[in-house]
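Reply to dn_fold:

You asked what the input looked like. This is it:
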Amino acid sequence: MTERLGLGTGITLVAQHDPIDLAKQIATVDHLSGGRFTLGLGFGWNVEEAADHGVEWRTRRELVRDRMALMRALWSEEPTAYEGEFGGVRASHAYPKPVQKPRGPVTGPRTLVGGAAGPKLFAHICEYADGWLPIGGRGLSESLPVLRAAWADAGRDPAGLQVVPYAVHPSPGKLAHYAELGVEEVVVQLPPAGEADVLAALDACAPYLTGAPAAGGTA
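and this is what came back:
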């Protein structure tokens, strides 16, 4: 129904999914949308929920890293085997493939990792993602230089790092601050309300959109 709208998850708890099934779902959505899917992933915060999925809390980050590697193997153009600490997959024909092409160490759709700033999180971002999905933008002035340094140390292209603040309540000053930091995209927070309130919140964001219609126009 659309040729421009993107679709993303905020967030996918990779540790709580079967990686073969999840890889198929992700590739299918990216394929059907013509490459407009963004995988926003995270490690979770609910210890009890993770345990119900058989996830050992202290190793959840390593589990996510392992499952991302397994999914990359399934997304590869040629049949590729993978054997990791938490699981593996034999070389096999897996279709459809994601539309988005490999870039550096990243295979599959645009991938953003959510979580609080820190060396462990930044290591994951640099290893298998396109960037960071921080909740809000507090502390970005201090954390972004650290992430950019880690990104450069990992041999990643400085121009390729994407930082997309999530659950933002936009204002002109806040967006100007993000722009000064090199942030080009945000995900706005919508109210958990009925249709009328959500549409009103979306209308309030219209002035911040590039190419937004003049007052009185229609979008």
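Confidence is low (pLDDT under 50) at residues 213-219.
Hope that clears it up.
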